[in-house]
Design goal:
About 50% of the residues lie in helices and about 20% in strands. The longest helix is centred in the C-terminal third of the chain and has 47 residues. The mean pLDDT is about 85.
């Protein structure tokens, strides 16, 4: 289980921030949603941002809060290594590659079977000729 440090920055000033310690990724998301729900328009206009660091101090998430066209607050992540869409896309590509590999193996097995059958038929015809 990873420990995370959430640093909530309300604007570009260094002294205007809060820090939270959480013990799991689920708790991290709960805290991020709580932060999102507590934001007001002035915070969003000033540039509300959150940096999440793991126990080693590496940047895990860099989230900037913003309103979308429907008025809801979005939380896009700027760290591509931990972005869930990148993970989903990679998993989808891996599944497609696995499916293609299965199809290729099946085609090769079918080809070997047909060649084996053709050879057996030719051997039977050769045996028939020699009789």
């Amino acid at each position: 289980m990873k420990n995370f440090t959430i640093i909530a920055i309300n604007c570009n000033l260094e002294e205007d921030y809060r820090e939270y310690q959480v013990k799991s990724e689920a708790a991290m998301w709960n805290q991020l949603r709580a932060i999102r729900n507590s934001l007001v328009d002035t915070d969003l206009n000033r540039g509300a941002r959150v940096e999440v660091k793991d126990e080693l101090g590496n940047l895990f998430k860099d989230i900037t809060f913003r309103r979308n066209s429907k008025g809801k607050i979005e939380m896009p992540n700027a760290v591509k290594e931990t972005c869930r869409y990148t993970k989903v896309k990679a998993a989808k590509l891996a599944a497609q590659a696995e499916a293609e590999a299965k199809k290729a193996a099946k085609r090769a097995a079918g080809r070997r079977y047909r060649e084996k059958k053709k050879a057996a038929k030719a051997a039977a015809a050769q045996a028939e000729e020699t009789k």
